Amino acid sequence: MSPSESQRAHEGHATEGERQWAGSAAEPEPRRGGLVADPEPRRAAAAGPQRRGTGRRGALIAAVAVVVLAAVGAVVFLAGKGKPTTTANAGNVGGASSSVKSPAPSPSVSPSSSSPSQSPGTAAMATLASYLRQSAAVRPTVQAAISNVQNCSEDPSTAAATIQQAITTRQGILQGLQTLSVSGLPNGTQLVSALTTAMQNSLNADTDYHAWMADLVSSGNTCGSNPNQDSNYVNGGTASSDATTSKNAFLSLWNPMAPTYGQQTYTATSF
To answer: How many domains, in total, are found in the chain?
Structure first.
């Protein structure tokens, strides 16, 4: 070989060796059994820390979620404790049980069973009607006592006791009329005034007849005498006539109004 050929041969061997060394470093030979070694061991090693960072972030998110859920649960629990239910409050009253049943609903009232509305003067009319019934209850006993003494069928002392009961009744009516309120009753003032006059005249007649009977008892004349000879009997007849006149004046106001308020009508000789 010439020197130049020897130099080229040397350079060719060196180049071939460098290529083989470089090839062996970049591409390792296959292992036995056909398995190839991991060509990127460094990449796997570099990827390891990235996966561990991802796992830490997931664990941190889960922990934050648990804390948030616990806080929400605490708020709901405290809100429930701040608003006690009606059942709990009912159980704390009087030491009763905490589970109290709600009362059953009241049955509805049918329209037919409800009381009708009252007019403003209904109460006053009812009171006046009660006075008329009291006077009507004693009038027959007074008339019977007078007639029985006249025909000698009853002792004057017994008849006088009967008339005294009528006197007491009519005195009570007059006292009640003095305090009766008729502000909501049409013509209420006129009604009270007319009935007061009628009751006063009836009371005067009762008092005169009672005095007549007392005269008979004191004189010892039980019957058979002329009653017109006794001034008290005469006065009783005059007062009775005045009572009839005043009763008719009252009834001219009462009878037109009474049916409107559910009350009965009267005649001058019925009370």
So the answer is: 1
| Count of CB atoms situated within 10 Å of the CB of 21 | 10
* Interval 86-118: pLDDT, tens: 433 433 334 333 344 444 444 343 333 333 456
Q: Is residue 105 part of a domain?
A: no
Alpha helices in 31-155 (DSSP H): 41-82, 86-92, 122-150
Considering the domain boundaries, does residue 234 fall inside one? yes
Is residue 54 situated within a structural domain? no
Q: Assess contact for 194 and 250: CB atoms under 8 A.
A: yes
Please calculate the CA angle 262-267-269 and round it to the nearest 5 degrees: 140
3-state secondary structure of 31: coil
Q: How many angstroms separate the CA atoms of 254 and 265, rounded?
A: 7
Which tokens hold the place of 49? 């820390």
What residue numbers bound the domain in which 233 lies?
122-261
